[in-house]
Structures are given as C-alpha cells and as structure tokens.
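Slide 14.
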Amino acid sequence: MRRASARANGGRGAFGKVDHRQGGVRVFINRLAGWGAWYIERPFATSSAIMSLPELFRDRLRIPVIAAPMFLVSGPELVIASCRAGVAGSFPTLNARPVSVLEEWLQRITGELGPRDAPFGVNLIVHDNNERLAEDLALTVKYRVPFVITSLGLPADVVKAVHAYGGVVFHDVIHAYHAKKAIQAGVDGIIAVAAGAGGHAGTQNPFVLVREIREFWDGPLVLGGTISDGAGVRAAEVLGADLAYIGTRWVATKESMAKETYKQMIVDSGARDIVYTPAISGTHGNYLWPSLEKAGYVKSDLGQPRPGGHKIADESRAWRDIWSGGQGVALIHDVPSVAELVERLEAEYRLAMKR
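Slide 15: predicted structure.
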C-alpha cells in the first residue's frame, strides 16, 4: 500500500510501503534549444504513481544532476557555470566569509542567471554550533534562493521560512531514519549521501539506501556518493533516484575555488587513497590520504574525533589544507571546464541509456 504523493501532501504524509515489483523505468529526453527537458516514470505499482520533481527543476536541466555544495570549493563562478551548463549549482553559505560576502555572492548569482538557466541553491548547516544560521537564512529568504539544502540537524525552521516565499528544501541524510525525521519536518526532497561520498558521508551502500528510502518516500530523491560519470547518473535513476548529487568530480574543474594542488591530487588519487575518519571535523567524512599525510597525520590517529570537539566555524581551518574527496576519484583524470564536463556527462548518460 503506497502513501499519497509527497507533492500532493506538501512533502509530508504518513509512512507506508511502496510496491516496486511491477512496472519499469522509462526516461524520455526531448532536447529543446540545447537544453534537456527530461521526464521520468518510476517503477511503481500503478500508473498514477509517477515521480516528479518540484516545478523549478522541470525543463531546466540538461542532465539530472545537482552539483553538490562543497566546503571551501563551491563559489559563484562554479555555481554560475554549472547552472548555465544545465546542472543545478549550489554552494555552502559558510564559504562566503564574512556574512557580507554572502550577500555579494547572492547578488551576483541572481543577477547573472536567467530563467533558462538551471536553478541554484545554497547549503545551510542547521546544527546548533552554526552561529551564522540565522543571518544566512535571512539572506536566503531576502534573495529568494530557489532551493535550499539543509544538513546536520532538524530543518523545520528553515522549511517554514523557505516555503513562505515558494522555495523548496532538500535535506541530506546518511540513514533512512534520518530521512523519516526530515520528512516529518516538512522537507520537499531527500538527498541520500551513501558510502564513498566525499566529505561528510555515511557507510550505507547506495543500492540499499535508495531502495530502503523508497519503501516509505515517493517524493523527490537525490543520490550522492562515488558518482563521477554519466553511467553513474543513469545508475542512480535506475535505483529509484530522481537526481544524482555530484561533488568530487566538480572539485577538479577550472571554475572551482580549490587550490590547483588540490585539483591535481584529485586527478592523481585512486579509491585506495580515500580515508574515512572523524578526526578532522568531529563528524565522519572521506578525505584524501595524501593531504592528511602531508599535514602530519598517521593512520593510527584517525580512529577518534579530535579532543575538545569543534565548532562549525572552525572547519575552514581544519579543511584548509586537509582535503575531502570521494571514491569517485578513481574515474577523474583531468581538470575540464564545467561546460566541457557537462557535455561529457551528457554523452555518457545517453550512452548508458542505450545499454
């Protein structure tokens, strides 16, 4: 017995099992003036159970991808380039320091993007340790940011503020029970951050994580973790996700704010160079071992969080020369422009659809 549509019920509703045993996955792509309009029917038991994204995403994406917000990496150049290329761009508000810079960034992004570009979003850390949350949320509301990604806490207050101006809220999770809490708080979509993702990530295999969430949630679902090419984007759809969430691949682009040495380390690294540890920020995350080694860490130090805890504001110091990365580095071999990367991803995605 499947529950009522999430969009028809404001992103909320009672939890219930969804029967995925019947039907199939069909993807129709209609290129319009160089942009991809894509519509997806998911494998639900009845024809009425057709998945749809919020209106702001429809007909505006060249490929079904969000460029994930990356700490100290995503800035206006990366967001604008992504949106113009047909991918939803995003950035963490804490990348803009001090808060006055955040307003400058929002002015620039909203001024340079047009109605045919993909939508952009910001990432708000809703943990109690984020002393800037109230200010950042106020600017998010002022500039009517189309979509907001919340992390590390309960997003109810953000949901209320963003819904008031017509925006949508996606919440990132690493477990299904986190997803249930976010849905109860009224979010519009769930971002499932699976094992192998860069930065803060979980340990659950994406095959299980997506399918488990789909047992009780038929609203927008985004999958992140180890996706670096168009085949991975297509695989996310087949699992039941609406969009792929790609971060590490975007680090190694010409428009990212990452240092050139960071970009080159992404290119030079393989999956075996990724270390999962709480030692850097207090929350488990995936990092590039060469950067940890260069900073003086030894592997025996990586099993425990650093003593004394940390504040969100301290993370810029913690991550300045210690660089995150996901297992998807194994498929990254160059540093293209965002436009070149999206064109490549689209070709790979189309090829994967024919298999």
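Speaker note: The two ends are 32 Å apart (CA to CA).
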